């Protein structure tokens, strides 16, 4: 592949189309400063895909379009094309020449072409990558690259070699994987927090679900046992009843046996009593006879007392019966008196009834008479009228008309008067109805207003209740959200505490040292702390401070060098790794330069890093050493301006982590997440604790508001109920009024119809009267006789009419009286009927009393006979001489009889005890029978209750429940199990019926989260392994490339310097990581000692840097390379050496050199000059080689 030429049009200062043809070897582009020769290099980089305007020395892409001069107008676009020879088909397209073109319009749109065909930027980049060409790497090398090698710190210089060895692409992949790993770890942490919240919910919900499942199981078991108990009892009810009936029959049989035993005992008892009585009588008689002389008086008194007591008892009963008889007699008298009074009252009322009947008969007669008289009167009235009419008819036609008209007018006038009176009555009625209607309307209006007000109040209350409910629901949501947030913050707090306590985020050696310090006090007392944990700052400055600290954030602070030495030896002994220690007493503070103090006033300067951080003053030297003479700026633009103004006199770090070193280098890119996390952990922990406390306070406040809402809801509900009652009351009143209004309206309409009809009839009558009056007026007059006759007839008719009216009024009075008489008669008849009922009741009572008296009289008579008998017996019981004589004869018999009496009494006691025993057994059997009878009744009641319970609980009957029947079901055990299940069910308390499904969903979610977390952990592991693979690949490739570059550097250094030696070494002073170690350049020019590059002169540094660049190019030879004034800093001798080496190197690589140094021009194969004949417009001119050899250096 050969770079043939570049064509430019409108690019920067190349206003006209320009073409530069490149050949093999070296093509030099020369010209004075500012002529635009570097624009050629910029155009090549631009076509190769550069997207940064700053890299191409512009502020925006539109700056690359020719902007015009005083004599030329600006162009609307710019274009550049690169031509490559592809005859050997290095490019993977089937063309012998490859043309890559880029065009830019002022609108900002870009177009890309490959061989004049539209293409994408990605297509161009991929095509160039096939041949190892691109905007990155070493296709274009500018003077800045030499300066970067010379002035950069070892750790910053490393980037040059990473790019050279080709691991820059790995760095991007490594950074991407590290970001992925950080994001994955963060996701794992978030998942852990989220899972912790779910776990917190799962415990209570699982208990609720288990409780609900247990409840369902209990309900199912309870249903099973209750249904089987019910079925068993239904099926066994006959058997159970039969068993109980058998028991009752057995008890009855046993009772009968006991009763027979009792009867037998009673017979024996009676026989013994009879024998004992007989013997007692005989003994009594013998004893009475025997003791007649000694105890005659006492015996007589005793017997008298007995007879007296009996006599008195029966006398008392007799007296009671007599008193009762007397009371009954009195009651009989009162009853008879009451009957007599009632009969008298009936008799009186019958007299009254007779009078009323006579009066009624009289009234009927009078009414009938009046009716006849009225009929006669009406007949006379009609006859009088007829006579009057006949009289009038006998007159001439005119007089007849006059008489007829007068009569009709009179009649009509009377009718009109009646109609007028009716009209007045109707008007009054209508007016009254209207007033009622108006009052009703007012009342209805008032009620409607009250109803509207009440409804508005109800709506208002509903709105208030709705608002309270909404507020309560919102509070519930907030409580739920804050509760979740509280649990999340608690988990975060634990996480950050664990992070701090276990030194997570620090180097493994620090973690291990801290771990061992817990068990080894000697190690712990030597450590003052890690830099990152001894310093703090505002969140805003964390990135800047951790960037300024760099790897030093992981350094360990000790009190003195001896402690540091002890810890280093301890690390060696235990093979724990390497650490940097900062002894307080030996670390030297860094003085703040006056330039930094002055720069604090500059725009964008935020402050001295040592001032913006917080730490214990005993560590002042340590942090002064680490952060001294360091300025923190807000952004890179202001930082760059400050650095330029003060000639990079101090280090500047921006808030985004860009670094401007005192050597002039600028570092930027991604921040180190590890140390940033360590530096910010304490702040995050404090923020989490504060936020947790604030959340807890908000939760308590919300709970208090929730309680207030509930209280307000209860109050509003009560008020709402009262208002609803009021609305109902008013609505009912309105309904009643509406009914009244309908009735009033109907009455008014009827009244209006009557008024209208009345008015219509009145108008007709008046019209007829007017007509008849006109006719009367037309009549010329009538004779006196006719008038007299008419007057007499009229008077007769009036008299007859008056008589008839009088009779009718009299008839009405008599009719009203007749009605009153009939009412009074009815009332009297009712009274008489009531009295008769009372008499009948009293008669029955008298009969009962008479019967009772007969019984009492019979009883009294019997008792009096008993009393007489007692007296006779008392007289007969006196002791006689014969009885005393017999005492001596029976004295010997008394002893034997007494002995026999004792034996009989003993038998009597045995029989009495036996009778009591049998009676007790009978009573027990009776109780047992009663118990069984109750059990028999209880079977039916229990079965009925159980049947009702089964239906209410399960909607089952015996027929539908038979399907769950269990064979050989034990009812007793089942009832015990039912009692246990009910007790357990009650013990469970409130049940969340949705808990089972909710827990199932939550558990599934948790399991999904576990799977996702496992996927994330596996992904983190895979990313970690990929990261390790990338790191190993980077290390291997970097080692191989670095070794070859080092070998090339040693050879090229000797060629350029004419001897000496040079080497590249990895600097591990700041890190143990091979991938982070800086690159130190050590050189030994001829006649000098080996030392760091920074200790040599600027020319020596520049030539050494060029040697390194050539060494890098030797590692990966390019098809072509553009060098933009890289030898500008060399003196004449070194430029010649550079030119000679470049000439030799050009056999392998095509070089386009932008220069203004004579030796380089002399050895170039082609020369192109760039000039500005017209200000602001670059042009290419041909320069002869002989003229180029005589060209002076242009500085």
Describe the structure.
By secondary structure, the protein is α+β, with helices and mostly antiparallel strands. Helices cover 70% and strands 10% of the residues. It has 25 helices and 25 strands. The strands form six sheets. Strands 2-1-4-5-6-7 form a six-stranded antiparallel β-sheet. The chain has a six-stranded mixed β-sheet with strand order 8-22-23-3-24-25. Helix 6 runs antiparallel to helix 17 (784-876). The longest helix is centred in the N-terminal third of the chain and has 123 residues, at 168-290.
Short descriptors:
1195 residues; alpha+beta; six-stranded mixed sheet; 25 strands; six-stranded antiparallel sheet
What would the average pLDDT be, to the nearest integer? 79
Unreliable parts = 293-298, 395-400, 672-676, 1188-1195
Physical arrangement of strands within the biggest beta sheet: 2-1-4-5-6-7
Structure classification? alpha+beta
Determine the strand fraction and express it as a percent band: 5-15%
Tally of helical runs: 25
Q: How would the global form be characterised?
A: elongated
Q: How many strands in all?
A: 25
Largest sheet: 6 strands, antiparallel
Intertermini distance: 35 Å
Helix content: over 70%
The whole-angstrom Rg is: 70 Å
